[in-house]
């Protein structure tokens, strides 16, 4: 009983002390000559190259469309306008990351992609806000983020399974074993679709990197902010720097030099207009690059079964055949 009474006394004493502390703080604030308000910090958007956030070396920017968040005043924001030099820097960064990424075990790459799904889920509100600012409704933004997370989980699951579908033990006439195995191609340049900006970028990149390739991405021109918000998710996931590099700007300026680059091994073009895609495919042919041109509708990207088939992975792997003595 005595202990309970002491506890009540202490509690009462603490409660009595709080008003005196609060009044002292109020008095001190009142004595300040100036009380600062909260600053409105504008986002300084940067491209994502080699695991670092960088401005364009040219110093150029482009302005994205006005904010479309309900209840907010429209503003325009500057996004880096990538140059030929930025593209070359991205290829160098991708090449530096290629040996380490391609040598990781398939299971480890799957763990990293699953971690990416976790980070997408953790930052879903930020990504939702970015999509809404670009004109999506809240319902559509949530649906796109959900589909994007599902896409990451699906390719995490494929990471150590597609090899069994593509590999073969070939019949031979001599005392040898003859195996055919898939291997990554190297650096793949991706033109992400304008819409859906998030799901399209993730859905195009994951089947490329899951096999050990690295990617240089030209982001959506209509909504580059969401691609750069995704870059912040990549930077805080376990994905090594340089595996995915994101450039913003005009695709007609970024892509042609990359299509001619000797250290780029393939092109994956989504939603690129006919004239530009023809120019890029012809330039890629001069250096024997593999090219794929697709123009999926925005709704088609939501088809999980059609967009997670291992054929999306197979397009950007090379088949290596190995001969080995059988010992007989």
Main-sheet strand order equals: 9-8-7-10-11
SS content category: alpha/beta
Strand fraction band? 15-25%
The SSE order reads: HEEEEHHHHHEEEHEHEHEHEHHE
| Annotated CATH homologous superfamily | Aldehyde Dehydrogenase, Chain A, domain 1
Biggest sheet layout: 5 strands, parallel
Radius of gyration: 26 Å
How many domain modules? 1
Which stretches are poorly predicted, pLDDT < 50 over at least 5 residues? 1-19
**Mean pLDDT, as a whole number?**
87
Amount of helix: 40-55%
CATH topology: Aldehyde Dehydrogenase, Chain A, domain 1
At CATH level 2, the architecture is 3-Layer(aba) Sandwich
**CATH domain class name:** Alpha Beta
What is the total tally of β strands?
12
Give the overall form.
globular
Number of helices: 12
Distance between the termini: 91 Å
Structure report:
The strands form four sheets. This protein has a five-stranded parallel beta sheet with strand order 9-8-7-10-11, with helices on both faces. A three-stranded antiparallel beta sheet has the order 5-6-12. A two-stranded antiparallel ribbon has the order 1-2. It has one domain (47-325): Aldehyde Dehydrogenase, Chain A, domain 1, CATH 3.40.605.10. The chain contains twelve helices and twelve strands. α3 runs antiparallel to α5 and α4 packs antiparallel against α8. It is 48% helix and 17% strand. The chain has helices spanning 2-31, 84-103, 106-122, 124-133, 138-158, 162-166, 197-209, 224-235, 251-260, 274-286, 304-307, 311-314; strands at 47-49, 52-54, 61-63, 78-80, 168-170, 176-184, 187-191, 214-218, 244-247, 266-270, 290-294, 317-325. With 328 residues, it is an alpha/beta fold. The protein starts with a helix and ends with a strand.
């Amino acid at each position: 009983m005595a202990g309970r009474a002491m506890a009540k006394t202490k509690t009462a004493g603490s409660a009595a002390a709080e008003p005196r502390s609060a009044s002292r703080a109020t008095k001190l604030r009142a004595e300040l000559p100036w009380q600062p308000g909260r600053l409105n910090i504008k986002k300084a958007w940067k491209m994502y190259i080699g695991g670092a956030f960088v401005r364009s070396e040219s110093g150029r920017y482009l302005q994205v469309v006005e904010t479309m968040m309900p209840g907010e005043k429209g503003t325009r924001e500057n996004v880096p306008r990538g140059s030929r030099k930025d593209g070359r820097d991205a290829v160098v960064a991708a090449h530096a990351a290629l040996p380490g990424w391609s040598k990781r075990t398939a299971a480890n790459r799957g763990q990293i992609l699953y971690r990416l799904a976790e980070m997408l889920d953790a930052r879903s509100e930020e990504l939702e806000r970015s999509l809404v600012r670009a004109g999506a409704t809240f319902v559509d933004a949530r649906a796109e983020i959900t589909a994007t997370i599902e896409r990451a989980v699906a390719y995490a699951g494929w990471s150590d399974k597609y090899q069994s579908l593509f590999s073969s033990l070939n019949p031979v006439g001599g005392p040898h074993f003859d195996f055919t195995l898939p291997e990554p191609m190297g650096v793949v340049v991706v033109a992400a679709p304008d819409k859906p900006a998030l799901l399209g970028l993730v859905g195009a990149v994951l089947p490329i990197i899951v096999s050990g390739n690295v990617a240089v991405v030209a982001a959506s021109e209509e909504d580059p902010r969401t691609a750069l918000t995704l870059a912040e998710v990549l930077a805080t996931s376990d994905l090594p720097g340089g595996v995915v590099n994101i450039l913003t700007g005009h695709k007609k300026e970024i892509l042609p030099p990359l299509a001619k680059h000797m250290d780029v091994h393939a092109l994956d073009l989504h939603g690129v207009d006919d004239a530009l895609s023809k120019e890029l495919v012809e330039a890629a042919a001069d250096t024997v690059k593999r090219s794929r041109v697709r123009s999926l509708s925005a709704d088609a990207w939501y088809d999980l079964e059609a967009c997670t088939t291992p054929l999306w992975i197979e397009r950007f792997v090379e088949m290596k055949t190995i001969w080995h003595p059988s010992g007989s």
